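I hope you will forgive my troubling you with a question about protein structure. I set the record out below, with my sincere thanks for your time.
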Amino acid sequence: MGSHYGTASYLYARTWGHSLAAYLFRMDDADQKAQFALRVHELCDELGIPKGHGRQTYLGKMFDVTPKAARKWLMGLAYPEMALAVRMCVAAEVNLNWFLQGFGPKRGERSDSDTLRLAEGLDRLPMENRQAVLEFMRYEFQRADGWFTQDTLNHYLESIDQLKRRTGNTRSKPLNT
């Protein structure tokens, strides 16, 4: 197993193969499709694939698919099969979760299956409940005096604020240092 994609995604890919894509991705969500297309272009940039008209052909040749299939990814009309998505992420040294779902860090840190399940659960809560959970997490992190370095604490709080912005609430309490 490579070092740049989440453990859970690797296990899903090994267990379910390409059929997992239908479960993981809400294909009816136009915004998710558009965001995925942006990540495909970003992955192409990472791989040094030239921008412009020939990008789909170059991407297709690189991963042994037709230019039509690559075009669908670049336009956010389809997702690659799981095994191919894993190959693409390994080649670009990016996390699979980031590439397919826009979740987690682009590089480096891994996400375990428990973390992914919790994030999925949080994402499925109604917005008010999700905001309450995030506000509680912020409160608990701030009062956990001495458990985290200041940089780590600030990183956690910024992540919470990003999640809150993504779900429509930009209000956050200032950090008391």
